[in-house]
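Appendix B, example 12.
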Amino acid sequence: MVDLHETAFMFCDICGSLLSMTSLTYAECLLCGLKRSIKELQEKETSYKITAEDIRRNLKIQPFVQLNKFQIAEAQVERATVNEACPQCRHPQLEYYTKQLRSADEGQTVFYECPKCRHKFSYNT
């Protein structure tokens, strides 16, 4: 069983707020005043994850492209076509779109879909 005190050592035991390192001898809860000795926190490892959305929110930057639900659905419907036969039903045209799934120095993946039978397949270029 995991000891919560071992995994949440930087949070106040009383109110759950993040402790602030206000002194060289203790960490203090700015909300309720609880103090925890720095000796309790020594040699504990902390890590956190930050996303691009966190950075944009912190810097108050709007995303380059903001699509509403209607625009997203519309963008997904519009695909290019190619004059190639469907391997399943032999329909003469396929819809396709590309996506970079692997590293940047490798080719894109092309996703095909038959508009008649909805057979889907992909090809790595």
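The longest helix spans residues 69-77. The longest strand covers residues 94-99.
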